[in-house]
Amino acid sequence: DMGGHDTYMHKEISEQPDAVDRVLRGRIDDRFSTVHLGGLNLDPREARGIRRVKILGCGTSYHAGLIGASLIEGMARIPADAEPASEFRYRNPVVDPDTLYIAVSQSGETYDVLAAVQELKRKGARVLGVVNVVGSAIAREADGGVYVHAGPEVCVVSTKCFTNTVVAFALLAVHLGRIRDLSVTDGKRIIEGLRRLPAQIEEILKGEEDIKELAAQYADAKSMMFIGRVRGYPVALEASLKLKEISYIHAEAYPASELKHGPLALIEPAMPTVAIVPDDDLLEKNRAALEEIKARSGRILAVAHREQEKADHTIIVPKNEDELDPILMGIPLQLLAYHTALALGRDIDKPRNLAKSVTVE
Ligand code: F6R
C-alpha cells in the first residue's frame, strides 16, 4: 500500500519525520543527559574498555556507518572507522579483542555483512548489530545491538533507513560518550538536537517543489560530481550512489579537498557539482572549493544553511548541531535523485540490475 504516493520511494522519503521519532522514542534519559539502548549487552565497564570501533556494512549502510564512525569518534573519543564488509573480510584483518565491531544492515540479511560477523565471532570478537529488520540473520548472530525502527522499506533503494541508521549511531555515540568523556552539557546539546530533527525534516520535505524544478534543470547532465568535507563527505557519497542507482546518471563523490589533486580536470559546464556546504568550522574551506569550480565554468548546486553566492542554486536546510547536520543535508538529495529519475522516466522502485537484499557474495 503506497498510501497515496506514486512510488514506495516517495512514500518512504515522506515517512522520515515519523521514522526518526520512532528511533528516538523511549531511549532518551533527560536526568543524566544520556541514552538507554536496551539490547546493547554492554555494561559500563566493558564500554570503557573499548579501544577502537570498526563499523562494517555495504552500500548505503556503509555510508551510514561512515557517519556513525565520526559520531562515535567525536562524542565518545574512541578511534572509529567504517569499511565495506566484503573488503574487510578478504584482507585478513587483525581482529583485536579490545575493538568493538558493529555490523550495519537494513535487511539484516546481506551476505557479505553476515559472513564478516560470523568470521569475527569465530575469532572471539564482540559484534553489535545496527539493523532494521527485527530477528534477521545479522541481528540474531550479533552479541547485541540497536534496532533502527525505520519500519518496512519496500523500495529497492534505501532512504528512511539510511536516515534512521545515522540517528541510531548518534544515540549510540551519546550512550558511549556519556560513559566516557562527553560532558552533561554536550550530551544535552545533542539530545536536544536529535529532538529537533523530525520537525526540521518536515520543513525540508515542504521544499519538494523547488527541488523538483532543480532536478529538471540538472537532469540533462551526463555526469555529476558530489563534494563534501569531513562530515559532509559521506553525505556526498550517499547522494551520488542514490543518483546513480535510480537515474543511471554517472556520478562520483570526492572530498572537496581532493578536487585539486585530479578531478578538477573534469569540471566543465556539462558536469555539474553538488556541494555540501554546512555552516561549520569548514565553511570558508568549502567556499574556496566552490570558487575553484566556478573558475572552470562548472555549474554548482549547493546544499547549505544559507545562500552560497558562488553557487548557481542553493538548497537551504535548517541548521542543527554541527554533528547532526549530515542527517538533514542528505534529505534534499534523496528528493533530487528521485525527481531526476522521474524526469528521465525511470522505474524508481525497481531500478535495473539491483535487488533489495543481496544474499549472494
Ligand atoms: C542503496 C542500497 C544498497 C544497500 C546494500 C546493503 O540504496 O539499497 O546499497 O544499502 O545492499 O543492504 P543492507 O543495508 O540491507 O545490508
TrEMBL record:
Keyword Signal assigned: no
Major location category of this protein: cytoplasm
Coiled coil segments of this chain: none
Superkingdom in the source lineage: Bacteria
GO cellular component, one term: cytosol
Compartment annotation: Cytoplasm
Residue intervals of the SIS domain: 42-182, 214-351
Keyword Metal-binding: no
Catalytic activity annotation: D-fructose 6-phosphate + L-glutamine = D-glucosamine 6-phosphate + L-glutamate
TM region positions: none
GO terms for biological process, alphabetical: amino sugar biosynthetic process; carbohydrate metabolic process; fructose 6-phosphate metabolic process; protein N-linked glycosylation; UDP-N-acetylglucosamine metabolic process
Alphabetical UniProt keywords: Aminotransferase, Cytoplasm, Glutamine amidotransferase, Repeat, Transferase
Molecular function in Gene Ontology: carbohydrate derivative binding; glutamine-fructose-6-phosphate transaminase (isomerizing) activity
EC number: 2.6.1.16
Annotated active site: 356
Role of this protein: Catalyzes the first step in hexosamine metabolism, converting fructose-6P into glucosamine-6P using glutamine as a nitrogen source.
Subunit-structure text: Homodimer.
Protein name: Glutamine--fructose-6-phosphate aminotransferase [isomerizing]
Source organism per UniProt: Streptomyces globosus
Positions spanned in the full protein: 245 to 605 of 605
